[in-house]
Structures are given as structure tokens and as C-alpha cells.
Amino acid sequence: QVQLVESGGGLVQPGGSLRLSCAASGIFSDINTMAMGWYRQAPGKQRELVAAITSGDRTNYVDSVKGRFTISRNNAKNTVYLQMNSLKPEDVAVYYCELDDGYGHRWWGQGTQVTVSS
Predict the structure, then answer these.
(1) pLDDT at residue 28 in the model
(2) Dihedral angle at the C-alpha atoms of 25, 55, 9, 48, nearest 10 degrees?
(3) Is the alpha carbon torsion for 8, 85, 39, 33 positive or negative?
(4) d(CA 20, CA 79)
């Protein structure tokens, strides 16, 4: 059974940084053939894609985080990261990682809370 476990969330002041990690386990195929992404859901809002990275390491970001967030992956560790810099109050949300095998199977982590407040 595939499991994704996020970590690294917490409370940070505006302008601060956090690094989220998502470790995958129970995968029977090469994770480097799969796309991975980070989504977030703020209170009262729909879940939105924040950043994604393909099997070929192509990345894309929602406009609101471009230049501040960086997604990366370490296939040897089955882990995807989200480096978040210059955090703003509008970044407050529960952040979820996602794994997509490209064949209609998607898996989600349990989420990690990010709070930006002075």
C-alpha cells in the first residue's frame, strides 16, 4: 500500500522560510517515472496546485508562489520537497503532497499545516 507522509510544516513569521518533505513508501514501480506535486487548501477555499515536478524534472508553479517556492525531488529517497521562502499570510493552508503514476492512480498524504503569522 502506497503511503505518503508529509513533514516540515509549522508556524513562521512573515518573510520566513519552511521546507516541506514528503516521503513515499510502498511503491512497487520506479518513483522516477511518476509526477509529484504539492497542493494546498486554505480555510473555506478549494484545494489548489502549488507546484509540480514531472518524471523528467520539469517544474511548474502557481503564479502566486513563483520566485518564492521551489519543488525538488530525490528519487533515491522517494521524497519530494517544497522549499518555501518569503512566506506570506496568504500562504497559510494545509499542504498536501501527491503522487501520480500517470496511469490514473493518485495518492495523497495526510497534510501538514503551514501558518504564517507575527
Answers:
(1) 67
(2) -120
(3) negative
(4) 10
> Which cell numbers in the block locate residue 44?
473555506
Give dist(CA 29, CA 104) in Å, integer: 14
**Which of the pair, 30 or 46, is modelled with greater confidence?**
46
DSSP three-state, residue 64: helix
C-alpha 96/C-alpha 54 separation (Å) is 17
Q: What is the mean pLDDT of residues 36-42?
A: 97
Torsion of CA 46, 53, 7, 115, to 10 degrees: -40
CA distances 24 to 11, 30, 90, Å, are 24, 11, 28
